[in-house]
Write a structure and sequence with these properties.
Elements: H1 6-11, E1 16-19, E2 31-35, E3 38-41, H2 43-62, E4 67-70, H3 74-86, E5 91-92, H4 104-122, H5 131-148, E6 160-164, H6 170-179, E7 183-187, E8 198-201, H7 207-291
Parallel strand pairs: 4-5, 4-6, 6-7, 7-8
Antiparallel strand pairs: 1-3, 2-3
Helix pairs in contact: 2-7, 3-7, 4-5
C-alpha cells in the first residue's frame, strides 16, 4: 500500500507545475498534461517515487547514518526546521555555506569554535575581556549559530541529502554529486532531474505540497529509527541469552566434573577400605599362626 494517496497529493496542490515557457524538457516523463499554459505533474508517478524515496531513506536511517535536509527558500524553511528536528536530523535553512560537504573539516572547525566560545563564557574567561571584545565574540557566536547551529551534531558527512528545489540548491547538489552522496529531491517542471538520484516530481513552491511530502518522508524515517532501536534491543537480548547459556553450559560442565571427581574419590575410598580389611585379616592370620 502506498504511503500517500492520489487524493492527498491533489488536495495539497502537488500537481501544479511551472509555466510551459519555463519547463525543462528532461521533466517530460513526469508531466501529465498542459492546461492554461501551466504544466500538470503526473501524480501517479509522484506516488511511486515517494514510496521509492521513503524506502531508500529507511534503509539509510536503519544503518544508523544521518540525512541532511536542505531548503533555503522561504516557503520551506520552517517546515524543514520543524520536521528535521522532530526526527533528529541535521538541516540547512539559511545560506548554503560553499564547501560545506567538499570542505567539511573546515566547517567542523567553525562548529567547534561555537563550543570554544561557550566554554569561555562558562569558565570566566569572558570576565577578563573588554566590552568591545565581548560584543565581537557574541556577534560571531550568533552568526555561527544561525548558519551552522543546526548541523552542530553532524560529526561526519551525511549519508544522503534531501533537497527542496534542486535548482535553488544547485551548489549543495553539485557538492553531493562530487562526493558520491545520494540526493533525494523535490523536482518541479522547471528543474533538471539529471543530478538527482531519487526524484520526487512535485510542486516545490506551495507550502502544503512541501509539508505533505516531508511528513511522509519523516514518518518513514521515524519507522526506521524505531525498527533499528528494536533490532538493537533484540540483539542485546540475544547476546544476554547467549551469555547465560554459555554460563549454564560451563556450570553444568563444572558440576559434571565435580560429580566425576566425587565418584572417583568414593571408589578410591572403597578400595582403600578394602585393602585395610585385607591387611587386618592377614595380620590376624599371622598372629594366630605365631601363637600356634
Amino acid at each position: 500500500m502506498s504511503r500517500v494517496s492520489f487524493e492527498q497529493l491533489l488536495d495539497a496542490g502537488v500537481h501544479f507545475g511551472h509555466l510551459k515557457s519555463k519547463w525543462n524538457p528532461a521533466m517530460a516523463p513526469y508531466i501529465f498534461m498542459e492546461r492554461n499554459g501551466i504544466h500538470i505533474i503526473d501524480l501517479n508517478k509522484t506516488v511511486v517515487k515517494i514510496d521509492e524515496a521513503a524506502e531508500a531513506l529507511k534503509n539509510i536511517v536503519r544503518s544508523g547514518r544521518k540525512i541532511l535536509f536542505v531548503a533555503t527558500k522561504k516557503q520551506a524553511k520552517q517546515i524543514i526546521a520543524d520536521m528535521a528536528t522532530a526526527v533528529n536530523m541535521p538541516y540547512v535553512i539559511e545560506r548554503w555555506p560553499g564547501g560545506m560537504l567538499t570542505n567539511f573539516p573546515t566547517i567542523r572547525k567553525a562548529v567547534k569554535k561555537m563550543s570554544t566560545i561557550d566554554r569561555m563564557s562558562s569558565d570566566g574567561t569572558f570576565d577578563n575581556l573588554s566590552k568591545r571584545e565581548k560584543l565581537q565574540i557574541t556577534r560571531q557566536r550568533a552568526k555561527l549559530e544561525k548558519n551552522l547551529g543546526s548541523i552542530a551534531d553532524m560529526a561526519r558527512l551525511p549519508a544522503a541529502l534531501f533537497v527542496v528545489d534542486v535548482m535553488k540548491e544547485h551548489i549543495a547538489v553539485c557538492e553531493a554529486n562530487r562526493l558520491g552522496i545520494p540526493v533525494f529531491g523535490l523536482v518541479d517542471t522547471n528543474s533538471d532531474p539529471s543530478n538527482v538520484d531519487f526524484i520526487i516530481p512535485a510542486n516545490d513552491d506551495a507550502t502544503k505540497s512541501v509539508e505533505l511530502i516531508l511528513a511522509v518522508i519523516c514518518r518513514a524515517i521515524q519507522e526506521a529509527a524505531m525498527e533499528s532501536k528494536m533490532e538493537h534491543s533484540n540483539k542485546e537480548e540475544r547476546d544476554s541469552d547467549a551469555t547465560l547459556s554459555r554460563r549454564e553450559r560451563k556450570s553444568r560442565a563444572r558440576k559434571t566434573e565435580e560429580a566425576v571427581v566425587d565418584e572417583v574419590k568414593e571408589q578410591v575410598g572403597e578400595l582403600e577400605d578394602a585393602e585395610e580389611v585385607e591387611n587386618t585379616e592377614e595380620v590376624q592370620e599371622i598372629d594366630e599362626t605365631g601363637e600356634d
